[in-house]
Design goal:
By secondary structure, the protein is an alpha/beta fold. The protein has a single domain, classed as Metallo-beta-lactamase, Chain A, CATH 3.60.15. Helix content is 33%, strand content 22%. The protein contains 11 helices and 15 strands. The strands form 3 sheets. A 7-stranded mixed beta sheet has the order 1-2-3-4-5-6-9. Helix 7 runs antiparallel to helix 8. It is globular and about 60 Å long. It starts with a helix and ends with a helix.
């Protein structure tokens, strides 16, 4: 599952990616709706719109995979790649920006994505410094709240949410196709990474799920940042679990328990078999939720 691969992805920058072997990685394309696909390889799940306007890609995984991604896009539709929209700044989503820009894509993201990519970042949970991205990999079009693309016969709305996974997260809604790409606001099948060093917080993750649930209908297909394609019902169940666990951890914190004491209380134990076997281990996740709570 893609969540397990996130153990490498979250290291978030070219130095980490350079240590990986991508030779055996294949880019798989699954049709989600007419003209809309989900692509998987290594790193965050990609979204793709194809048609006469050209290809619009959501996220770009690692630079070492750019040629394979471009080949997969071309195999679906011969029109060139025109737009690349980043859902947030982590390397398994933006490391391919420079290559895809040189291939003709205009880079678009929330303004906080460009800000974080432009300067050194420190991911405290992993003790890792992430160097600035080169100029050619930075988004050239940014937005504060929302942007709409009238593209390939659809209305593709990207909107920013309050700090959740990071402070630059966007949700992408394909209105006509009835598809929503959530980026790393949704880890389908595992505990979500909350990047507290990028202002991430559990309350924002839950609030973002609520916004998507309000948009989604019974047949809406939801592309998560990691894990398999999901339904509205699956997102609802995931959101409800996170809310329950948030309440438990908040209760421990409010009662005066220290971070270590809250972790030792094992508040997620009844969900660990389902959600705690991937990259984000239960004890680490409880600590991040604790840190993100007011």
């Amino acid at each position: 599952m893609k969540i397990r691969l996130f153990a490498l992805a979250v290291l978030a920058a070219a130095p980490a990616a350079a240590q990986q072997d991508f030779s055996g990685v294949e880019i798989k394309a699954d049709k989600v709706a007419e003209g809309v696909y989900m692509l998987t390889g290594r790193g965050g799940n990609l979204g793709l719109s194809v048609g006469k306007s050209g290809a619009l890609l959501i996220d770009g995984q690692y630079g070492q995979l750019s040629e394979k991604i471009l080949a997969a896009v071309k195999a679906i539709n011969p029109e060139p790649l025109r737009l690349l929209l980043n859902t947030h700044w982590h390397g398994d989503h933006v490391d391919g920006n420079g290559n895809l820009s040189r291939a003709g894509a205009l880079l678009v993201a929330h303004e906080n994505v460009r800000r974080r990519m432009s300067s050194e970042q420190f991911m405290k949970p992993f003790g890792r410094k992430v160097p600035p991205s080169p100029e050619g990999a930075l988004p050239v079009v940014t937005f504060a709240d929302a942007v709409t693309f009238y593209w390939n016969g659809d209305e593709i709305r990207a909107f920013h949410v309050d700090p959740a996974h990071t402070d630059g997260d966007v949700v992408v809604h394909f209105v006509k196709a009835d598809v929503i790409h959530m980026g790393d606001l949704f880890f389908n099948g595992g505990y979500p990474f909350i990047d507290v060093s990028s202002a991430g917080r559990i309350d924002g993750v839950i609030a973002a799920a609520d916004k998507v649930l309000a948009l989604a209908g019974p047949n809406t297909r939801i592309i998560p940042g990691h894990g398999p394609l999901a339904t509205k019902a699956e997102l609802q169940a995931h959101r409800d679990t996170l809310s329950t666990l948030r309440g438990r951890i908040a209760g421990l914190k409010a009662s005066g328990k220290t971070r270590d004491e809250a972790i030792a209380a094992k508040p997620t134990a009844d969900h660990d078999a389902k959600l705690g076997t991937g990259f984000m281990k239960p004890d680490v996740w409880v600590g991040l939720v604790y840190d993100s709570l007011p």
